[in-house]
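Repro:
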Amino acid sequence: MNPDILREAFEMARLGAGQTSPNPMVGAVLVGENPFRVVGRGFHTWAGLEHAEILALREAGELANGSTLYITLEPCCHQGRTAACTDALIRAGIRSVVAAMEDPNPMMRGKGFERLRAAGVEVEVASAFTREAEALNEPFVHHMRTGRPLVTLKAAVTLDGKIAAPEDNYGWITSESARAHVQQVRHAADAILTGIGTVLADDCRLTDRTGLPRSRPLVRIVLDSRLRLPVDSRLVASCRDDLVVFTTSAAAPERRRALEGRSVRVVALDGPQGRVDMRRVVDQLAGERCLSLMVEGGSKINWAFLEAALADKVLFYYAPKILGGMQSLPVAGGAGKRRRADAILFHDLKLTVIPPDEFLVEAYLVKD
């Protein structure tokens, strides 16, 4: 096993960022033995249909015979939108396969390897790269293992944990560099969610502004129990069948008709205390093959997702500022916990410096 070739397969996979959902990013590199050289490369995109290994085989042609395939994910062995990749590899005369991880789909895990081994193809799982492979396709892996989208709570925060001042909230907490990083995260997401309070305060658009190609539009979601979303807001004005408002049965019918007349999808999901049932929102997104959801809400929305353990991870962008005071909004408001012993816990914390003076905290919610 040549680790440099497998790292090249990872680089190929990353070329498909934002272009593969609801499929995973996959990179493949074919290497001939005599002489030792790369004969084919490929990476998957949803629009292109063909999987990474098929594209690598096509580039290699007859040179694929007797070669070794390095790939970031176990080749598929089932008929989907395309034919089984394992069969194509066997027909091409592939000698061996080095894969970074098994298919996380519990119905398919290991079956591609079994099919290859049964045909005499050597198979090696490069376990030293498995964690990196899981991180590469974190939303896909999470969805396959839990049936739910990966829910990431993002916030721009001052050093004292504030996200908004009591007056005059124009401008940004974080720098242009941090906001550019957020756009990259949005580009990789399937959906983004906020509350009506944030929309009314900021008149936000919640768009992917990278300009990079996507496999499907970023679905923009607003939680709005009483349908207060203005029909002349920037969200509604920019709607291209990509805006969903979750509300309750208490919302005025005329408000619903006005929004639907502008191509906004309105869904009533009644929850406790006259509010939208957020758990049903996440379940509905799962049923629509949404692999990843970004939550960019206010203090109350953030607390609701944390308290209900609906958030899986947080991305907190810290700026070198302090707002202070008792009226500035904290990153998570709501009722909060009454005792330190009851604090919501996180694990696998990672710190990333954003030059010159900001940093990103990424951590995962501890769940029972």
